[in-house]
# Entry
Amino acid sequence: MAGQNPSVLWIGCSDSRSDPERITNAGPGELFVTRNVGNIVPYHDWSLAAVVEYSLTYLNVQEIIICGHSDCGAIKSLDTDLHDPYIPLWLNDARDAKTRVDSRIPVPKTQKEIKERDHEIELENVRLQVDHLMTYPSVKKAMEEGRVRINGLYFDLATGTLSLVT
Ligand SMILES: [Zn+2]
# Structure
């Protein structure tokens, strides 16, 4: 294959069960991919900024997808007092997802309610990272020019379904 011409930039979680090509049945050359713990788009991250700029300026992708998933260890870790040198710092850019959800639901009591809260935070984290992505200058410019659309997706590991996060 001469060169690459992907139409989508996929920002996903590093979780070994959330492989984007498997989830979407995409073939080689279709997705430009970056993955990290918790599918996070930090406000200031050179690695992610370079991926985003490259995909918009040189690959002319028409869509950016941020994909979260069920049973996400990063999201669960938001409730844990971690002492690792880097993970808690990295997760700082996802903490608002938890704050947003906890401010609008009662404190969960049953196992079912706890699971529902995790699910809500996983969804909210996708929305939060879309918000972060919109602050990147290359994304702002491409949006203004109508060159790209941004979508949040959620992958359910148990059912294998991919749904739009609205
Ligand atoms: Zn994850």
Observations:
- Residues 62 and 147 are 6 Å apart (CA to CA).
- The beta strands are 8-13, 31-36, 63-69, 149-156, 161-165.
